[in-house]
Amino acid sequence: MISLRIQEVCRKTGLTKKAIYFYIDQGLIMPDRNAENNYLDFSEADVDRLQIIALLRQYNVPVGAVEELFRYPSMTNFYLHRQLADLRAQLLRQLGLIRSLSTLLTELPPQYNVANLKEQVGRSTAATEADQSMLDLVCPDQDARMISIFIWSSFLNVPKSEYRLFLWGKITEQAQQELKGSLRYVARIIYALDSEQIENDARQRYHDSQAILKLQEESYGQLRQRIMKRLRHLADDPRDQAYWTLNYEKVTLPLVRFVNGPLGDLIAEYNSEYLIYLKNMQRLAASVRRELLEGAERDLYERLIRVLNGKLDLDQYPGLISFYTFEMGLYMILPLAKQRQLLEE
Amino acid sequence: MISLRIQEVCRKTGLTKKAIYFYIDQGLIMPDRNAENNYLDFSEADVDRLQIIALLRQYNVPVGAVEELFRYPSMTNFYLHRQLADLRAQLLRQLGLIRSLSTLLTELPPQYNVANLKEQVGRSTAATEADQSMLDLVCPDQDARMISIFIWSSFLNVPKSEYRLFLWGKITEQAQQELKGSLRYVARIIYALDSEQIENDARQRYHDSQAILKLQEESYGQLRQRIMKRLRHLADDPRDQAYWTLNYEKVTLPLVRFVNGPLGDLIAEYNSEYLIYLKNMQRLAASVRRELLEGAERDLYERLIRVLNGKLDLDQYPGLISFYTFEMGLYMILPLAKQRQLLEE
Question: Which residues does the UniProt record annotate as the domain HTH merR-type (chains A, B) (predicted)?
C-alpha cells in the first residue's frame, strides 16, 4: 500500500496544504497518522478523492455540496446538472450587468465626473430576453437530460455498453430539443430539493417500478386499490388539491407528456424491461379510468372534477392518475408558498 | 436645507442600514449628528452620493475602487471602463467553466458515481477562442473608447453640445471598429495602473500639450532639446532600452498608428485646437527626424538603432520620437517583469 506525505499530495492534486487541511477538518478525507513520526499518511484513495474535490471546486461546486455528493454518490449527475444550471443563472446576471454598463458607457460624454452618475441611478441591470437567447445559443440548458435521468432512473441502472452510450446520446439530444423550456418549472422544483429528499424519492420510485414491472393478473387489484385510496385522499384534502391545481399546467401535464412521448421508445431500447413496465402501467391506468368514468367510482370522479376545478383530463391523459400516485410525491415536498414562488417567476 | 433620518435614506437608496453604516465607517459619507437627539442627519448630498455608491456597487465595483473614484473623480470614465473589462474577463472565465462542465455532462453515462469523476480530473476549464468571439459578438470590448479618452483627454475638456455628443459617438464607434484587438496590450497596461499614476500622467500630458499648442518659432529649439536629451538617455540606459524593445510592436506602434490615424480628424472637429497641436507636433517631429537622419545627430541615431535592435522606424513613423518623449512615461511605470507578463499572455 502506498502512503504519501502532504507535500507529494499537494504536487499531485494541485491543492495547497491549507486546502487539504481544510478538507480534513470537514471530514472529506481522513488520512491516518504515522505512529512513528506523527505525520499524516495519505492513501491512494485519499489522493483520488482530493483530485475529485479539486475538480468539483474548479466548477465552483460549494464545499457543502461536495460533502453531500460524497454522502449521496448516486446524486452525481443531479449535482453536476444543478451546478450547470447555477452557473448559467450567474452568467445570465453577469450578461445583464455587462450589457447595462456597456450601454451606460456608450451614452456617457468623454469628460465625466462621478457626481454626474446621479442621472444614471435606477438603471436596470436585469438580463434581457436577448441575453437569454444568446445564452441558450452558446450553451443550451441541460435540464432535459437531468430530468430524463431522474424519471427513468429505475431503468437506467443497467451495464454500460457502446450501444447504450449511443442511445443515451440520442435520448438526451432528443429530450433537449423537444423540451425547450416546457420542463423548466419541473427543473426548478427538482433543483430546489436536497439530496436526501431526492434519494428517498428515487428509492420509492424504484420500489414502485419494480412492483409495476412484476404485475400479475391478481396483483392489479392491489395497486388499483392503492390508487383509489390516494384519489379519495385527494378529494378530501385541500392541501393536496392546492398542490394539484398549482402544478397542473406547469409541472404535471408537461411531465406526463414527456414520459409518454417518443422518448419512451428509446428508453425501451435502452432497457427492454421498460416496455413491460409501460404496458402494465397503461393497463392499470385504463382500468382505473374505466372505474372512474363508467364504473363504481363515478361519484369520486365527479367530486374530483369539482375540487380540482376541472383540472383532470383523463381522456387526453389517462396516465394522470398513476402519475399522482407514484410520482407526484416529489412535487409536493416543498412548502406550498415556496413552490408557488418557484412557479411564478 | 433638508435633513433625513436613516430609515428614509434606506428607502430612497435601496441600501440597508448596515450598508450605510459601513459606508460611513469607510469615510465615503460623513453625515452630521443631530445635537439634540444624537441621530444621524443625512443631507441631500449624502443621499446623492449613496445612490451613486449603490449604482457602482450594482456593477460590482469594489468598495476600494468606489473610494478611489471619489478621490479622483476625473477618473470616472477610466474606472467604469476598467470595470467593464473586469466583468468581461469574469464572463469569459465563466463561459469556459460552463462549456467545460456542459461537455463533461454530455459525455457522462446516466448512472454515474462521484468516484467515476476521477477519469475527468485534469479537464481544462479555460475559455476557448470560440468563447472569446462569442463574447466579442455579444458585448464588444470598449477599450478603444477608454484609450481615446485617455490619449485625447487634453482636448476633450470642452463644453458639451449636441454636435459634440454626436461626434463623440462617431469617434468611439470608429475607434472600436478600427482597433479590434490591436490595442489590447495598451489597455492591459493602462488597467494595471492605479489612479494616482494615471492622474499624474494626465496632468503632465495636459501640460505638454499646452506647451506644444503654444509653440512659437523660438520655442521649437527648447522642445527639440528636451527630445534630444531623452534620446541620449535612451541610448545610455539599458532599462529604458528594455522597455522600448519590449513595448515596440505591441504597444508603441499600435498607439502611434492610432494617434495618427483617421480619428485625428474627428478630434480636430471636436476641438479645433487639436489641429494646431497636430501641425506643431508634426513640425517638431520632422525637425528632430532631420537632425537624426541627416544632421548633427546622425551618430546618436546610429547608436539608437544598435541598442534598440533596429526597432526605430523613423521613415514610417516619424512620430515615434515625440511619442517616446511625451507619452511613453506611462508605459514605463510598471516594473519590467510585470509588464513583460502582461504583454506575454
Answer: 3-72
CA distance A308 to A285: 19
Residue A272 falls within a domain, yes or no? yes
CB atoms within 10 A of CB A316: 10
Give the model's confidence band at B312: pLDDT under 50 very low, under 70 low, under 90 confident, else very high. very high
What are the CA-CA distances from residue A83 to residues A59, A96, A311, B295 (Å)? 8, 20, 34, 69
Disruptive mutation site among A84, A90, A102, A114 for chain B (greatest number of B CBs within 10 Å): A114
Q: Which chain B residues are closer than 8 Å to A100 by Cβ?
A: 59
Residues in a beta bridge with B32: B41
Query: Amino acid letter at A217?
Result: E
Regarding whether A294 and A167 lie in a shared domain, the answer is yes
- Shortest alpha-carbon distance between residue B116 and chain A (Å): 9
Task: Report CB contact under 8 Å: A52, B157.
Answer: no
Chain A hits for B88, CB-CB cut-off 8 Å, are 98
Q: Which residues of A6-15 are buried (b: 16+ CB within 10 A; e: fewer)?
A: beebbebbeb
How far is the alpha carbon of B36 from chain A, nearest alpha carbon, in Å?
31
- Phi then psi for residue B183, to 5 deg, are -105, 15
Summarised one tens digit per residue, pLDDT across range A219-246 is 888 888 999 999 999 999 999 999 999 9
Q: What CATH number is attached to the domain comprising B53? A: 1.10.1660.10
Its ipTM equals 0.85
Give the number of other CB atoms < 10 A from CB of residue B191.
18
Total of domains in chain A: 2
A334: nearest Cα among A268, A243, A256: A243
- Residue of B88, B102, B116 lying closest to A84 (CB–CB): B102
